[in-house]
Amino acid sequence: MNRAARPPQAPPGAEEERACRDGPPGGSERGSGTVMVLGIIAVALCLALGATGLIQAQAAAGRARAAADLAALAGATALTSVLAPADPCATAQRVARANGAELGSCTVDGEDVTVTVAVPTRVLGITRRAGAAARAGPVNPL
After folding, report:
1. Where does 81-120 have alpha helices with state H?
2. Which of 78, 79, 119, 121 is deepest in the core (most CB within 10 A)?
3. What's this model's pTM, rounded to 2 decimal places?
4. Which of 132, 137, 68 is nearest to 96 (CA)?
5. For residue 75, what are the contacts with CB-CB under 8 A and spacing of at least 6?
6. pLDDT of residue 90
7. Each residue of 18-38: pLDDT tens digit?
8. Mean pLDDT for the chain?
9. What angle do CA 111, 70, 135 make, to 5 degrees?
10. In the predicted model, is pLDDT for residue 100 greater than 80?
């Protein structure tokens, strides 16, 4: 009997150890890491898209607040100006338009001017409008 022709015997438990390390026979888990990485990338892209939409909406809201503040201040200044009095709502509309906003409403109550404005914007490719309101006038006495 030739001892060199026999294949070497595996030690006991080596077959189970190989099955745990390499997975089931036939490689049914091959490529599962790729699928998991693609899933993680898809989730990351969805989160980035959502964050982009929130940032765009927040920027539009900031532009609307700034335009409303400036329009209200301009209207109140025109209302109380001694040197160059003017129509406060017309002045507020000019200032709102100059800041890329549309004047929604303008009310004058005593020395207070209250305006609402809207700024057209696109959030994730969808046309939206960001609105804001502001009041300007003298501070009420305590």
Report:
1. 88-98
2. 119
3. 0.71
4. 68
5. 88, 89, 91, 92, 95, 106, 108, 113, 115, 136
6. 96
7. 666 666 666 677 788 999 999
8. 88
9. 40
10. yes
Contact (CB, 8 A) for 71 and 96:
yes
DSSP label at 138?
P
Rounded Cα distance, 13 and 7, in Å: 17
User: CA-CA distances (angstroms) from residue 41 to 16, 35, 68, 79?
Assistant: 35, 10, 41, 57
Phi-psi domain of 136 (left: phi exceeds 0; alpha: psi -120 through 50; beta: other): beta
Q: Which residue has the tokens 């030690």?
A: 11
Separation of alpha carbons 124 and 129, rounded Å? 13
Tokens of residue 52, six digits? 């982009």
Instruction: Mention every residue, 6+ apart, whose C-beta is less than 8 A from residue 134.
Output: 65, 68, 69, 71, 72, 73, 114, 115, 117
Residue where the block lists tokens 């929604």? 104
> Residue 2 pLDDT more than 60?
no
